[in-house]
Hints:
By secondary structure, the protein is of the alpha/beta class. The chain is built from eleven helices and eight strands. It has an eight-stranded parallel β-barrel with strand order 1-2-3-4-5-6-7-8, surrounded by six helices. The structure holds 1,3-dihydroxyacetonephosphate (13P).
Amino acid sequence: MPHRPYIVGNWKMNGNRAMLAEARAIDRAAGRYPDVQVALAPPFTLIGALREAVTAMGVGGQDCHAHAKGAHTGDVSAAMLVDSGADFVIVGHSERRKDHGESDGVVQAKADAALANGLGVIVCVGETLDERDAGKAVSIVAGQVDASMPVGEGTSDAVALGKVAVAYEPVWAIGTGRVAAVSDVIEMHAAIRARLIALYGEAGEKVRILYGGSVNAGNAAELLAAQGVGGALVGGASLTADAFLPIIAAAGNGEA
Ligand code: 13P
C-alpha cells in the first residue's frame, strides 16, 4: 500500500455512552499500530464524549450540512462538528444518498464545507446491484467521483495533505455479508484513481481509496492487500473492539 492505511469505523445509527468502553479499547489498539491511521465516526450524540475518551484515533461525523448555520432543523454543520471535537466527516454515504435523496451536487457541497472548516473528508461512492448487473458499475462510480469530490477553495492543499479520501462501497455489499470480488475491487479502485488524477492532477495520488462493504476479520487482510486499496470503511464490524481489532491488525500486518 503506498499510503499509511486508513481504517475507519462507521457506527451509523448505533451507540450510546455505554459503548464508549468499546471505543476506548479500540483506541488502545490504535495506539499499538502507529503505522495505521484509525478513526471512528459515531452518531453526532457521541462525538464530544468520544473525543474526550480517546487519544490515538481520529473522531468524525457521519454527515454535515453544506451551510454554516441557519434554519435547517435537525442538521449539523461542519463548523459544529469541529466544535464538538471531530477531525473528519464522512459524506455521501449510500444510506444518506438513499434515505435523504442526496445528489452528487449536495454531497460535493458538503465535502467543500468540510474542507473549508478544516475537517478531513471521506466521500462515499458505489453502485447498486442493478447497475453492476447492467455492466455500468465503473461508469456510475466514475460519474459519482467526478461530481461529488470537493472542488472549493483550499481543495488542492487538503488533497496534498492527505485530508481527502474516497470510500468505494458497493451498495449491495453493505451490511449483507456479501463482499466484492477482489478483482472487481482492484478494477474499481484503479478507475477511481484515474478520475482523481484527472480532477486533481498528480496530487490525486495522495487521496486514499478505502473499500467498504461487509469488511470483517476474515476478509480484511485479503482486501487490504489488494492493489490500490488504501484502507477500509467498516460498519457492523467496527461496533466492538473484538470485531474491529483484527481489521486494524490486518492493516498493520500484525497479530491482534
Ligand atoms: P458494513 O461493514 O456493515 O457492511 O457497512 C459498510 C458501510 O456502510 C460503512 O460505511
